[in-house]
Amino acid sequence: MAKQSIVPFGPQHPVLPEPIHLDLVLEDEKVVKAIPSIGFVHRGLESLVEKKDFNEMTYVVERTCGICSFMHGMGYCESIEHIMNVEIPDRAKYLRTIWAELSRIHSHLLWLGLLADAFGFESLFYQCWRMREKVLDVFELTTGGRCIFSVNKVGGVLKDMDAEMLKVMLDVTAGIEEELKVIKKTFLFDYTVESRLKGVGVLTKEQAHNLGAAGPFARASGIKMDMRTTGYAAYKDLDMEIITSEAGDSFARCEVRINEIFQAIDLIRQAISKIPGGELSAVVKGNPNGEYFMRVEQPRGEAIYYSKANGSKFLERMRIRTPTFANIPSLLETLKGADFADVPLLIVTIDPCISCTER
Amino acid sequence: MGIVKRSPWLLHYDGSSCNGCDIEVLACLTPVYDAERFGIINTGDPMQADIFLITGGINTQNQAVVKQLYDQMPSPKVVVAVGVCACTGGVFKECYNIIGGADTTIPVDIYVPGCAARPQAIIDGIIKAVALFQERADEQEANQKGQKTENAALNEAGKETGNGN
Ligand code: SF4
What we know:
The structure holds two protein chains of two kinds. Chain A has helices spanning about 55-60, 70-85, 90-120, 120-145, 165-190, 190-195, 205-210, 215-220, 250-275, 325-335, 345-350, 355-359; strands at about 5-10, 20-25, 30-35, 150-155, 155, 290-300, 300-310, 315-320. By secondary structure, chain A is an alpha+beta fold. In chain A, the strands form three sheets. Chain A has a three-stranded antiparallel beta sheet with strand order 1-2-3. A three-stranded antiparallel beta sheet of chain A has the order 6-7-8. A two-stranded antiparallel ribbon of chain A has the order 4-5. Chain B is built from four helices and seven strands; from the N terminus they run E-H-E-E-E-H-E-H-E-E-H. The model of chain B has no long low-confidence stretch (mean pLDDT about 80). The interface of A and B includes residues 42, 67 and 148 of A.
């Protein structure tokens, strides 16, 4: 047997945008085992329910993660709305859907960039981030913020989009669609990129199922699961097909995410063509009493928001279960037997969001 | 800041940030905002870095990491705290695991406010950091020169008086 050595990886590492620590047990150049240790970003955000009332908590929950901030806020608000039996106006539902899908585009573009960076294709990284800036401009136009825009509230949304903004949104997404068609060629049909992605880090459907993988990561292994089909917000009125792939390798994950951007653009178009007029928020009176599980499809997979209220201003318990947390066991599985040089790439393919995971 | 005499290298570490400030820092380094035009370059290696950009507050687990990264940087060094979390603890100030802003662990020179801090503000912070770095580097150089001449003078004096044996 070859000699085993342990290489510490992180928490500060050039390819890692976020702190996670792995102890990699190596045999020559092959990873035998990866032992994670987490907690570098743990803040104890859920405990803030004792100090902030349920309305203020919206803004704290939004700061679970700055990439999918909007969907965190939305998931939390919907859980409270269900407890309080508040029916939010249709326009608010559609606006939430549009912002959520835009967030997905921004998150996936960001991921594509990081992936390109991980396999050392710097100009591709810059191209993806350049496209992403356009989405951020739309966010800024419609909400005033770039990453964290706090437009959710219990009972609806705080800001409206007028016809002009919707038009800008259509134009920008159309532009992104065109550019993505070009960039897609590099990601999916380039010999060099293929050689870094194809067959790397294969996770079979069975493994993905047993280890409880979520989101695009699971869909790339052929699991048909997408929480948007449960029909929260306005998704029940929109047509969508779950995008899956069979191969289960890094290439499939890349493919699924690229197709999801096209899908998100399509969903935005549908939503904009159907958006009804009307109020932005419903009147919310009193305090919540009861409990609810809300499941939301985030760019990284299924996130669960559990709220338990006891009739007072402060919730009794709030819990978030995030997709990256669900994907870590599968990541450790794919790392086994991988080349040492592929480790950063494989970590990136689950689209890790450590700050969500540790909260 | 006048003409750039030195090109400081920049190290970015995510303390316990929510990623909001984090991706804004990254966005600053990509061509749209292009902070690299001010002569800085992003590096992943603390031992070669001159400017330390920290996002997010300090918690019990990352405190040692932040301290270590700071200690590994050669002097002179400048620390920039990006976002209210790094400045004071921000929304998470009352969380049980948060000790406070970055200044609870390392000396911070420049505070960039905002939640998330906007790229314009971050660039402003970086420019200030570059200027401060030049100042400190000049000072250090002058000190070293001063020390050298002092040493030389001492040596001279030693030669004159003490070389009887
Ligand atoms: S200042 Fe705001 S955006 Fe920045 S890390 Fe803290 S919570 Fe996130």
